[in-house]
Amino acid sequence: MDAAPAASVTTPYAFPVPRNASAIAAQCKTLLAELRQGEAQLAQDSTPPGTDLLAALDAMTRRTEDTMGPLGVLVAVSPSKAIRDAADACDRDYQTYSSRFWQNAAVYARVKQVQPADDIERRYWRDTLDTFEDAGVALAPAQQQRVRELNDELTALTQAFERRVREDRTRLWFTSGELAGVPTGVLKAARRDARGRYRLGLQEATVFPVLENATQPATRERLWRAYLSLGGNANLDTLAALTQRRRELAQLFGQASYADFVLRHRMAHSEADVQAFLAAVKDAVRARELADLEVLRAEKARQLNQPLDQTVLARWDTAFYSERVRRATYAVDQEQFRRYFPAEASLRFVFRVAERLFGITVEPAAAPQTLWHPEARTYTVTDNDTKALLGTLFVDLYPRDYKFNHAALWSFRNVSTLAGRQPAAALIVNVSRQGLTLDELETLLHEFGHGLHALLSKTRYAGQGGTNVQLDFVEAPSQMLEDWVYDPHVLALFAEVCPTCEPVPKPLLAQARAARDFGKGMQFSRQHLYASYDLALHGREPADPLMLWAQMEGATPLGHVPGSMFPAGFEHIAGGYAAGYYGYLWSLVLAEDLRTAFVADRLSPTVGRRYRDTVLENGGQLAPGELLQRFLGRPTDSQAFFKALAR
Ligand SMILES: [Zn+2]
């Protein structure tokens, strides 16, 4: 609980790997005991509350991160079910404690009396009061009790939803004939039976290349249907329970919907604001989506040599025919990129982009750590000018059973200049050992972008560190970097990190750039649908998750496929992105505006440094609008976004 500034840290953060499940239970018990003790001190203290009270609260946040941060990573990556389950159990206990803590009226009353000394304190103070108020500190005891029960139930339901997706054991068998067209590299790691059939799971690294390349429609359909059943009916029930409890929670606070309840604290202030934004985007993408689909339908008719008016596009056709169009019209085959982007070199490449832009060095830690899996490793990030250690990055690159199936960044330990504490983050992805496509390289850079936000942040309070920004801003810094991979000047950095790697042929990249905008209509429409669905599900009218989805997806040009259940695997809205999915489109508007500063040179160290100093360093201690104003030298606007949409 000591908040005194510490001497600068020179050794990387040591990731604590628990020996077994009972070690986690013990850690958890110690954490809760210490938090209770800290809480009692805060409530009993009779000195007039000053800014040291905010520091003490942040010390509790840091103490919580010390234990809960690594456990949050382990739930996603530990090969041991006992460890994953124990970490989940600890999270439930912690959430139960946390619900009660934020209802502590004595602590709340003292925080309320604090007179913030500057803007950073004021923002932290206001955010803290919001947390107390959203936890029901001002409600009657019976309602407080109900809020706690609901929060406990929400934690358990979200965990169950995510567990079913992560621990899915669906395996499908395909003959080599059925897998015609699928690149051999994708199948290399697949188990085969005595008859030579391949066993495929539902990892993204397998599913997407098969959907893009398998020439047999029945193969694509079978895999698509399995993938769109991830989570199953059990998760649909869980999602229904989650939305019902979120609605009840919002109502306890006098809010008409859960969306309104959470949006009060976002850049978009209300459900109506988000609806207005989605309506403005919808017109711009609808026509474009229809045009994209017509191109795909024509390509299907051409390939199957059948009349256009008898050709119907199925959902499992879009990825496949998009690839055909990219190859036929733009001569681009994403698979061709794998040989130029070996997995390890790709990781070094995204590091190098950041090194060039932000004046840092990312390198393997001098002393290797024993982590949760032999393939996970530790990197340090240091400042080139001061040589000071800035933070620690853990990387887990390849797919394996029971591992989180997507790509994400865990910002699990936040910086605090107040405490002399350095940040640590974990980059968890699932790239193919056969190398990356250009799309996958873009994803890797995006996720590492969140890592930069976490590791280059220098905030006073851990509670405002790095990615602890408003949820509808958090994607912007990563989205900004996405189109860096299409710039030959940026890709030239590959030669520095991998002298033996063959450079991407200029024409291939030029074609990929030309092909990039194809399919944007379909892609944005899908994003728009997800955002609208999330908002409707968390809106004023109660709805059955699958019926609502079938109705909304049914109104799109490709319709709804009976039997498919996309919402059962929609982890974003089961977890922290509930009533927040629109944030991807919303922050893309901000990302496009940020890009305008890098038009002349995406690797400009001057602009990069200014960006690091204004946007990344400040994390959540300034409002996003203020960060953008400081970086761009003008208020942010949506001109660049609509210009890009029309491209
Ligand atoms: Zn992201």
Can you give a write-up of this model?
With 647 residues, this protein is an alpha+beta fold. Among the domains are: 116 residues, Endopeptidase. Chain P, domain 1 (Glutathione S-transferase Yfyf (Class Pi), Chain A, domain 2, Up-down Bundle), CATH 1.20.1050.40; 59 residues, no CATH class; 180 residues, Neurolysin, domain 3 (Orthogonal Bundle). Helices cover 55% and strands 6% of the residues. It contains 26 helices and 8 strands. The chain has a 5-stranded mixed sheet, with helices on both faces. Strands 1-3-2 form a 3-stranded antiparallel sheet, with no helix packed on it. A hairpin with a 5-residue loop joins β5 and β6. α24 packs antiparallel against α25. It binds zinc ion. Zinc ion binds next to α15.
Helix content, binned percent: 55-70%
Instruction: Quickly give the CATH architecture of the domain at 338-517.
Output: Orthogonal Bundle
Instruction: Enumerate how many helices there are, as a single number.
Output: 26
- The average pLDDT score comes to 94
Bound molecules: zinc ion
The assembly state of the depicted protein chains is single chain
The count of strands amounts to 8
List its salient traits.
binds zinc ion; Glutathione S-transferase Yfyf (Class Pi), Chain A, domain 2; Neurolysin, domain 3; three-stranded antiparallel beta sheet; 647 residues; 8 strands; 26 helices; alpha+beta; five-stranded mixed beta sheet
